[in-house]
């Protein structure tokens, strides 16, 4: 089966791109051929020269990402910070003509990729109806649907997209993939043809790498967005009293990281060395699941944190205001037995989201 996975950009940290990259990888492991169609951007920065893509035949270039054909399409950033693909239609058509696409999976919401993929599918149906082409690929959407958004511009843009584009994309899709039942309930109001709960997000290879590591639990690790939201000085002071250090997954080349905060490092090693992981946890990101699998207790600092993923006081701590984080950390440090129990539960919870199983469920749905 030949599958096109469409996502906004590639990334080392962001949930939707990481999931799409892993989906393409594990579809390949199952014996399918997966292309990753995306923008010229990686974590917000141009990964290829825009002029090179502009001058290319068709407005795209084909590269390689860990043995996955990576199709970087001419693209631009929008006024509200999202990315718009300018040549996805032509890139899909070219790959389809050369190889024959059996399915398209558009990942994410609030950007134009799903709309462009749906538009190409509509064109393909018309072409097949007049004898041009043998079949129409199955089209599925994986929206990572979360109500609301951070920031005024992003919030307004997302509300507009949810109200206008999302219903038409869902209507065009043969199925909608979701991570969990709560997301499915939110989307049933749009009457999709089918909803398939696939879960996933934990890379089996990364989990195996963590299993090989034995590290002292030294760190409270924050994502880049969490680092910006908290009072770093107060958190560092609370961590030091608990005999811990603060680390961040933020890229020091792109963000200023306070000198008292350790920067990055190999993710599997940092996960294995972390006692606590702090993020918004609005979706079950591959990074969050990896840290959970490594027995780092997750703490959500967003009111929209994934209550379906972490049960407050059982698998982690939910909906903590950023200003309260030092107090919560100090309290947890006094309850090491409870912390160890949550860490064990977090690992067991994350182990149920292996990406190999999700890819199997996706492939099964695409072949129906």
What is the residue-mean pLDDT, rounded to a whole number?
A: 91
- Which structural category do the helix and sheet elements fall into? alpha/beta
In CATH terms, the superfamily of the largest domain is Glycogen Phosphorylase B
The CATH topology of the largest domain? Rossmann fold
Can you walk me through this structure?
This protein is of the alpha/beta class and 368 residues long. The chain has two domains: 2-197, Glycogen Phosphorylase B (Rossmann fold, 3-Layer(aba) Sandwich), CATH 3.40.50.2000; 204-353, Glycogen Phosphorylase B (Rossmann fold, 3-Layer(aba) Sandwich). It has 14 helices and 17 strands. It has helices at residues 15-29, 50-55, 88-99, 113-129, 152-172, 181-187, 204-211, 224-229, 232-241, 267-272, 286-293, 325-333, 336-350, 355-366, and strands spanning 2-6, 33-38, 41-42, 45-46, 60-65, 68-73, 75-77, 83-85, 103-107, 138-142, 175-178, 195-197, 219-222, 245-248, 262-263, 274-279, 297-300. An eight-stranded mixed sheet has the order 5-6-2-1-9-10-11-12, with helices on both faces. A hairpin with a 5-residue loop joins strand 7 and strand 8. Helix 3 (88-99) packs across helix 4 (113-129). The chain starts with a strand and ends with a helix.
């Amino acid at each position: 089966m030949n599958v096109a996975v469409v996502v906004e950009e590639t990334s080392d940290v962001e949930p939707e791109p990481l999931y799409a990259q892993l989906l393409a990888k594990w579809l390949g492991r199952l014996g399918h051929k997966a292309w990753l169609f995306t923008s010229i951007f990686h974590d917000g920065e141009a990964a290829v020269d825009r002029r090179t893509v502009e001058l290319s035949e068709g407005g795209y270039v084909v590269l390689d990402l860990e043995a996955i054909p990576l199709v970087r399409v001419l693209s631009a950033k929008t006024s509200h910070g999202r990315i718009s693909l300018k040549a996805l239609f032509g890139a899909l058509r070219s790959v389809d003509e050369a190889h024959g696409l059996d399915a398209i999976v558009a990942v994410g919401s609030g950007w134009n990729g799903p709309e462009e993929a749906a538009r190409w599918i509509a064109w393909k149906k018309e072409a097949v109806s007049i004898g041009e082409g043998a079949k129409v690929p199955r089209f599925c959407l994986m929206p990572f649907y979360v109500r609301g958004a951070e920031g005024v511009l992003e919030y307004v843009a997302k509300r507009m997209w949810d109200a206008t584009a999302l219903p038409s994309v869902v209507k065009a899709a043969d199925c909608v993939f979701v991570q969990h039942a709560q997301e499915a309930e939110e989307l049933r109001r749009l009457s999709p043809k089918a909803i398939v709960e696939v879960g996933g997000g934990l890379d089996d290879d990364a989990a195996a790498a963590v299993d090989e590591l034995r590290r002292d639990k030294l760190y409270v690790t924050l994502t880049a967005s969490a680092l910006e939201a908290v009072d770093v000085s107060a958190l560092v002071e609370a961590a030091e009293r608990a005999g811990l250090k603060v680390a961040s997954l933020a890229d020091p080349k792109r963000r200023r990281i306070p000198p008292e905060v350790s920067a990055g490092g190999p993710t599997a090693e940092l996960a294995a060395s972390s006692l606590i992981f702090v993020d918004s946890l609005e979706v079950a990101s591959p990074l969050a699941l990896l840290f959970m699998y490594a027995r780092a207790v997750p703490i959500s600092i967003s009111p929209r944190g994934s209550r379906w993923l972490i049960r407050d006081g059982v698998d982690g701590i939910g909906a903590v205001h950023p200003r309260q984080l030092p107090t919560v950390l100090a309290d947890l440090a006094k309850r090491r037995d409870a912390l160890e129990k949550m860490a064990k539960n977090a690992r067991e919870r994350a182990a149920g989201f292996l990406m190999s199983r999700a890819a199997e469920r996706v492939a099964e749905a695409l072949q129906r």
